[in-house]
Write the structure tokens for this entry.
Amino acid sequence: MANFWRKRVYQDEATQAGDLSKRGYVYQGGVFQAIPSPGTASIGLRTSSETTIVYLRELTTISQACRTLVYEGVTFSTTAGSATGTNLLRTEPNSAASLYASVTSSGGTLIAQDLAGSGNKAGGIAVCTKVRTLKPNENYLITVENLGNQATDTLVTLVWSEGEPSQYNVITDPNTTDSGVT
């Protein structure tokens, strides 16, 4: 029984974002936008054919409070090029998922929202560290709404992995004789 729990601890640690990034399974992408007051900015995310697990969603705002709304299953069109997620292990290929900085959209279901305050000087930040599993080959929309009375600049950053953790060959404990936890 002790061997089971030792293997379970290794599996849990090996599927955390920090350990996954050391092995080339974590990507980061961000979009910087100026938002008028009143106004909104929209960011499109098209996931790859793999299950996408978002570990961090961060909104940084320069001078005004902002709210983010995340929608799933939207239809969107882009007016600008896309950016891919950068692999945090620079010797590995980048993500097949795409981020779009300028989109028009319709439909979708609201699945999350956050608020970033402006602080008492300038700037504010909201970080959502809840792990959220996204569907493969799906469109997501992140809408950032300026709640202040002046224009503001914002940066939305996403950190994610792709694929199921069970595919990552996570057990590397030399004291066990089998290759994984079932």
